[in-house]
Predict the structure.
Amino acid sequence: MPGENLSRDEARERAALLSVDGYEVSLDLRSAVGDGDDEPRTFRSVTTIRFRCNEPGTATFADLIAPSVTSVSLNGRDLDPGEVFDGARITLENLAAENELVVDARCAYSRTGEGLHRFVDPEDGEVYLYTQYEPADARRVFANFEQPDLKAPYRFEAQAPEGWTVWSNGAGELVDGIWRFAETKPISTYVTCVVAGPYHYVTDSYSRVFEDGTKLEIPLGAMCRKGLAPHFDAEDVFLITKQGLDFFHDHFAFPYPFGKYDQAFVPEYNLGAMENPGLVTFREEYIFRGKVTQASYEARANVILHEMAHMWFGDLVTMQWWDDLWLKESFADFMGTFGNVGATRFTDAWITFANRRKAWAYRADQLPSTHPITADIRDLQDAKLNFDGITYAKGASVLKQLVAYVGQDAFLEGARRYFKRNAYGNTRLGDLLSVLAETSGRDMTTWARSWLQTAGVNSLSPQVLLDPEDGRIAELAVVQEAPESHPEIRPHRVAVGLYRRTVEGALERYARAETDVEGPRTVVTELAGADAPELVLVNDDDLTYCKIRFDETSLATLRGHLGAITDPLARALCWSALWNLTRDALLPARAFIDLVLRFAGHESDIGVLQTLHTWANSALVHYAAPQWRETGGHLLAEGALRELRAAEPGSEHQLAWARFFASVASDEPDLKLLTELLDGTTTIEGLTVDQELRWTFLEPLAAHGAADGSALVAELARDDTASGKRHQVRCLAARPSAVVKAQAWAQVVESDVLSNALVEATISGFAQPSQRELTAPYAEKYFAAIERMWRERSIQIGMDVVRGLFPALQDRPETLEATDAWLAAHRDAAPALRRLVLEARDDLARALRAQAYDGTAADR
């Protein structure tokens, strides 16, 4: 991996030297089918690049990662590939003012989801291809200048096996056996795209007449593997797509600029989705093979709108370098939820944002690797790791705060000016701030310094002083704190809500004040004289980005009456705050689990309920004192089964509780119930045990030795699909056997034969909370292997292994000491690798602190 890196300084030098006029890329994909003798399996890639150099006579390089290069021609001069190509770069010397580079190469199909990924469907033997490039894997498919600020138009063509269809960013047609595609607008290398194979393809169209009378027609398409076609609800995908296009046209006042709009749901995808203009790619898990809750449909709609927002924020206007990745990802993350609420049936999407997306941001912002939203990205490895909770969810939260700060109209008008001024170009932070300053009249410099250029999360706590005579509020203040590591005190626009119980017992808001919090302590004068509250909710309505704390009265109220809060957003914010207290070792894990057991059954929002299930499981596995885990597991299983039986038959809440019950089942009676639900000897009214739920039940059975290898082989015969294979691999690795663990470890660490999806499945099955002793020997092996893995494997596989196999379940001080020893002995290791280990170390240290605190709970 190090030889494939590109530094920011190198990119700046090359951008100052070159301007790219266009690419012509010809791919021969016919080698994708058939047995093939070459290793790795390769395809022919011929690229012509026309570019200008403002300093003739100087040298630069083009990017290409390929097993071999057949020929290189620069301005008609044949160059010796052996001399100019080193496996990652092509040296280009003595450039002219106007240049033409032609590179004929053999590029490798990918099994890691990077570059041109080749997937063989085990169900029918069909082969499917797709590309995934961000941040810098287009060079695995064609020679290029791989950096976002060297934009250019592209013309693609491809030869494919008979019976295949090929798609790219532009509209295509089959001419004399070759798929030829319309030239694109100027775009960056990382958003070019090719999808090829016998995909199931559905079409529709979108039309829009604008105020000036012009009409926009957009052909729509959606595709998936043939094996998933019976499950593909393309009509809902098209519905969300059309609603999103209407919404963004209304708010951006800049017509969608990229012609057609295809959406491909592809196998073994590393990401959620990718915003390739005209051809968005998604992980195929967004096609649901079984019954799922509305939270899954909401999440899919959010991703569709997120990628659509990128057509403007990212594709039309692109960051100059990955430092300003937030200029696309933060905006798309915000716009996904903004559009979901404003255009689709998911009008409560801000609740999901507050409860789930912000939890991702809060965790990332407390890691030692936290960084400002505008990050310091030194190279491509840094860029790869910065697709994180800071860039996405914190950035989106800050934009939500910005909307409250400057007003929605000013914010959107700023976006409109930003698009018009910078269309098809590249920008930096200052370009956006200048238009927002124009439209809002606010000084954006101070705001940007506090929110975009500093790291860390603030905590906001209420201080309530009551009048001793009448019991009303004499003074209510908001206290702001910051961690020592990141002591920035920021300006916050917040709402403070006062809640008390009604006669009927409902906990409802009776007073609210919106104010600017600045400095360590801010008095909310508007609430003086109000009746004494039972609950003070700082950041009511979730306007800012902060950790919420409670005074003693409020915390006591939540312990007794959390389920009585009638407003679902307020309830979600309280749950999120309590989870943060648990992670910060300020609330015992067993107390959080108790709250879930008492109040989660009354949670109306299905997304919040499923998040609570995830948090409760994490609290048990990572934050509860080891000596209490068994008791806590029994309590969660009993509670989950109770709620499962009490849930409305056939409801999504019933399904959620069934999945949670399976995740915490460990006792023989619970495992017996799962077995009987699988074989049909026991039923629960309304609960359909479809194929996806069968695999959900099988994993804990396999992990606890109640389902052996033959049962998993039989289940794969029942579900002999790509999805079934991933499930089976995970369940096989979950079995409680030293031989099984050794085999799983060898398949991932000592071999590279598994695809990215099967690596992920194997890692997921390997680490089981009930098997801490069984996997203990692999802690030492992990530290011995990771530097070699990082050096030899692709960065995606390296990330999966370093994160997924870290011995987090060996939650003892000795593991922390071993981690520190590795870090001390490997100070010169790749910074991205050290970052991943430091993050895992921080999670482990946090878990040990929480366990110690929970262990004292019985004494208090």
